[in-house]
Amino acid sequence: METDLWIGVDRFKKEMVDTTQRLVIELHEQLRDYMKENRDFLLSFQPVKVSPQCPEIAKKMAEAAEYACVGPMAAVAGAFADEVGRLLIEKFNCSEVLVENGGDIFIKNTQPVTVCIYAGDSPLSQKIGFRLPAGSWGVCTSSGTVGHSISFGKADAVTVICENATIADAFATAYCNMIKTEEDIEKLLEVALNEHVQATLVIYQDKLGVIGKHELIFIPSKVGGKSESD
Known about the structure:
By secondary structure, the protein is α+β, with helices and mostly antiparallel strands. The protein has one domain (5-219): ApbE-like domains (T-fold). The chain contains six helices and twelve strands. It starts with a strand and ends with a strand.
């Protein structure tokens, strides 16, 4: 379990760095201690029950896993992004926050923001994105071809937008597991939206599938420092 954060805020104070680091260390310690006594929480690929006395972050991960029918650790990166994002908003009164944790993103924005999708060697990688209006979002991506996380699917990227990153992370994992061939894209999109999932995007090699309420945009590639549309 590792945490690799990229954080953007609309106002900066030096104490943000130490405060964020302390929170991350504390959350790691809470989860590691809990998993020592509850190995299923760490190892299961299915939802697990947690005790009322477990750490709050474990409860949120378990709840998200229950929604998406995956193991709790499928939501861990998104959960850390959520917790750090909330800290920066509540303690430091930030109006705009972006916390990226290994491709899973917490966003609080007052102006529209574009999220670009990285999909490894796919020709569509970094050419497609979502335009999100002002609000609070979880935008998470799972891949069967990129990164070290366990995936049973073969999609280059499955991106999910939800109300928070914990839930989006769990569904991104579940949906990526479903994509074994390009024929699975349409099957997934038929069931992808629900009370938690607002939009889903699938990139499989040179194939693209998308459904949901958020605006899909084309991102021009740059040649010699200029975009193709310049």
